[in-house]
Amino acid sequence: MDLGRFSRVSVVVLTRVILMILLASWLPGCDKADSSNQLNHNHHFIKAIDLSSYPEISQSNSPYFDSEGNAIDLIDFVKANHVNTIRLRLWVNPSTPNSGLDEVAVFSERLHAKGFKIWLSLHYSDHWADPASQQTPGIWQTASFKSLKDSVFNYTRNVMNRINPEYIQIGNEINSGILHPFGNIVNNELQFYELLKEGIRAVRVSSNSTKIILHYAGFKNAEFFFEQLNSLDYDIIGLSFYPFWHGKSMQELEQALKSLAETQQKPILIAETAYPFTLQWSDLTHNVVGLDSQLIVPDFPASEVGQKEFLNRIKSIVKNIPGNRGAGFCYWGAELIAWKGTQSSTGSSWENQALFDFNQKALPAWNAFADF
Fold first, then answer.
1. Is-contact 209 166, C-beta < 8 A?
2. Partners of 216 in the beta sheet?
3. Can you spell out the DSSP letters for 114-166?
4. Could you give the C-alpha distances from 102 to 98, 108, 158, 270, 322, in angstroms and in order?
5. What pLDDT score does 209 carry?
6. pLDDT by residue (tens digit) across 161-216?
7. What tens digit of pLDDT does each residue of 256-278 get?
8. Which of the residues 103, 166, 198, 272 is marked catalytic?
9. Whole-number pLDDT of residue 44
10. What is the dihedral of CA 291, 269, 237, 138, to 10 degrees?
11. Are 121 and 90 in contact (CB under 8 A)?
């Protein structure tokens, strides 16, 4: 036996064993770190604004300005202020081109070219759909229920093929169902589920990547509502939160989101929110919010700072949902300045909740879209 060779071999073997032991002890930690980094990297936190009215407003040539008073291209300004997703409503057969498929498709193409993700809110109606109104489109009102399901599937698939959004809502604020009276949750609960399934199925056969949102107005009773939807194949829970409609306790909102995330094990986002920077009016159109009693005071007064701090608080609440399940937030009506002029009684009912002041200058709340 060559003792010298044996010694050399032993050293090599021993070295390899030591390296294997060290590598084995190091890899699990590395895997965990990589997994965590991958999770954080892939977790797209949605910082969105709803710009549904901008195509109409842009036709009026109403200017927007940055905080220094410099004229801006609104889309470029939004992008520069860290918004990564644009939400757009879609009506089936509106009385004007606004929020119809052609307008939304053209606008979406422009936004996609700018690098935004698109989030569509399908109302399945010719006009506003919300808990108080879920009117079936005129062209579907005399259809049989079977034909209506086919219409929902074909319409949704057509939307998907034209726009290819990153996110899509099957219905808007569907507390009371969709497509009344067919999908009224009170009288036709099973049909409500069937209609949702057809919309969901159309998305799934059209895309492997589009995330499906189901959208509920408010947070009270949301846990019970989504428990009834456990059999449905969707990705994200969306909630509206307007203090003047849904409650003034940020603590209750925070607890509700945590509880909902725990029971449903799904990502959650605030699909709509807004807050006034003043209680004054810029045109003669009645405003949705105009009273002190509608505010969260003293924490969030109707001021530029109050609006900014409100939105920062919303972002913080969502980001801190346990289990990394806070999917993001969306500000509704950021663009809704009094674009028809100060004497209009049919202008903006939201100009005191826009993210531009009455001189169309950008407000401090835009800072809330920046990362922490």
1. yes
2. 239
3. TT-EEEEEE-SSSS--BTTB-BPPGGGTTS-HHHHHHHHHHHHHHHHHHH--S
4. 9, 10, 12, 27, 40
5. 97
6. 999 999 999 999 999 999 999 999 999 999 999 999 999 999 999 999 999 999 99
7. 999 999 999 999 999 999 999 99
8. 272
9. 83
10. 60
11. yes
What pLDDT was estimated at residue 18?
40
Query: What is the predicted pLDDT for the residue at 28?
Result: 36
C-alpha–C-alpha distance, residues 281 and 143, integer Å: 44
Rounded Cα gap, residues 75 and 41, in angstroms: 26
Residue 342 pLDDT: 95
Residue 51: C-alpha distances to residues 55, 118, 206, 367 (Å): 8, 11, 25, 18
CA distance 353 to 46: 21
DSSP string, 311-331: HHHHHHHHHTSGGGTEEEEEE
Residue 37, classed as helix, strand or coil, is helix
Catalytic residue among 103, 166, 173, 198: 173
The segments of the chain whose pLDDT lies below 50 read 1-42
Indicate if 173 belongs to the active site: yes
pLDDT at position 21 is 37
Cβ neighbours of 317 (radius 10 Å)? 21
What does 260-281 look like in DSSP terms, one character per residue?
A: HHHHH-S-EEEEEE---S-S--
Angle at 56 between CA 52 and CA 62, to 5 degrees: 110
* Residue the block writes with tokens 């410099």: 70
Structural tokens at position 333: 């009506």
pLDDT of residue 3: 34
Predicted pLDDT of residue 43: 56
Provide the CA 239 distance to its chain's centre, in angstroms: 9
